[in-house]
Each structure stands twice: as structure tokens, then as C-alpha cells.
Amino acid sequence: MELLNGRFAALRRLSALLEQAGDLTGFIPDISKLIPLAQIDTTVYEQIRVECPYLNLPPISGSADQYLGQLRAQVNAAYGALLSQLNLHPFNALGMLQDKLNSYQNKINFAVLQGQDFLQCLQAICQGAASVTNTVQNLGRSTEQVILTSTTYYRDFVTNGGQVLTDTAKAKYDDFVDVKDGVSDLIDVDTSGFQNIESNPTVTPTNTDVFDQIIA
């Protein structure tokens, strides 16, 4: 039980650090400003060509399919790069903390300790006869220590359901997951219909900095 309490406290501290790091340094885009690939038409192409001259997009001449295919391929690659960055964001690690605790619980037979009846029984014993108190002390623990350990466990694992993330951290993580899912939905895993961007040397591949400019 003390091991579980210690692990829970450590993960809770780590959660707080990750939350602070994400707030201070994290880059989480507004996915409402990211345009779906299917919406990149000639109008959008010309808008991006004018507003983002550093992309070196050539004016459309003749069939637009090749030009649109090249831009869609660039945008798709940029979305993939953005998703990779999001996977490295501190908020992404928040979701792993609960799995870490759950795994640790399983390793030490958490099921044996789980449940309100067990904790109430333990507290009753610790507050009981002097002979039991002597037994506890012989194990290297005072009655007060055992009561503190059990009440801490009860608070964190029974009352709060073993949730590592605070309500604030969980809300931020849920919002972050929505952003990741939104970016994933924008990515087209089948790029066979796109033109090869290397076929046109005047087109410079995009990176994640382009996202602020690619808006509907």
C-alpha cells in the first residue's frame, strides 16, 4: 500500500510538471484554421500563392490538377509533421501516466488491496486492541503511520478512483486529444493521387510553420 501511495504521489507530481511545461512551451494549433485537403481548389491555391510567397508556388497554367495535387501533397506532409510534433508535446505524455499507474498496480496484485471494506477493516484494527498495536509496531510501523497510509490510499484510490490527473490536467489533456484527432483526420494516408512534389523544382516543401498561413 505504501508503494502504491508513493507511486501515485510521484506520478501526480510528474503530471503537474508536464501540465506546466505544456502551458509554457507547448504549441497547440487551432485546428479550425487548418484546411482539409479536399477544399484546396484553384481559389485557395491562388490565395496561398499570394499570401505565402516563400512557398514559391507557380501560377496555374493549363490543367490545374497537377498544381493542386502538388500543393495538397505538401500540405498533407506538413500535417504529418505537425502530428509528429504533437506526439512530442508534454500534454501527450499526460495520457501515459494513468497507464503507468495501472501497470504498477497490476504488478503488486492491486486487486487484493482494492475496496472500501478492506480499508475500513484495516483502520478498525489499527485503532483497536493494544496487542494489535504492538504487532503493528513490531513490523516497524506505528499505528499512526498505518492509519495515514490507509487513509491516503483510500482517498487516492477509492474516493478518487486512482485518477492521476487532476480535473484541470484532464480537461487540458482531453482538449489536446481532440486537436490530435483533428489533425489525424486531416491527413490523407493514401497519397497516390497526389503529384510528386519533387517533379517541380520551383515548389518548396512545406513545414509546420506554414500551418498558420494555410487557412480557408
Concise synopsis of the structure shown:
With 216 residues, the chain is mainly alpha-helical. It contains nine helices and no strands. The two termini are 55 Å apart.
Structure description:
This protein has 216 residues and is mostly helical. It has one domain. Helices cover 63% and strands 0% of the residues. The chain contains nine helices and no strands. The chain has helices at 2-25, 42-51, 65-87, 90-107, 110-113, 116-126, 130-138, 143-159, 167-186. Helix 3 (65-87) packs antiparallel against helix 9 (167-186) and helix 6 packs antiparallel against helix 8 (143-159). The radius of gyration is 27 Å and the shape is rod-shaped.
Low-confidence stretches: 195-216
- Main beta sheet, described? none
Number of domains: 1
Radius of gyration: 27 Å
Structural class category: mainly alpha
Helical fraction equals 55-70%
Q: State the helix count.
A: 9
Order of helices and strands: HHHHHHHHH
Secondary structure topology:
Blueprint: H1 2-25, H2 42-51, H3 65-87, H4 90-107, H5 110-113, H6 116-126, H7 130-138, H8 143-159, H9 167-186
Helix pairs in contact: 1-4, 1-8, 3-9, 4-9, 6-8
Offer a few descriptive terms.
9 helices, single chain, mainly alpha, 216 residues
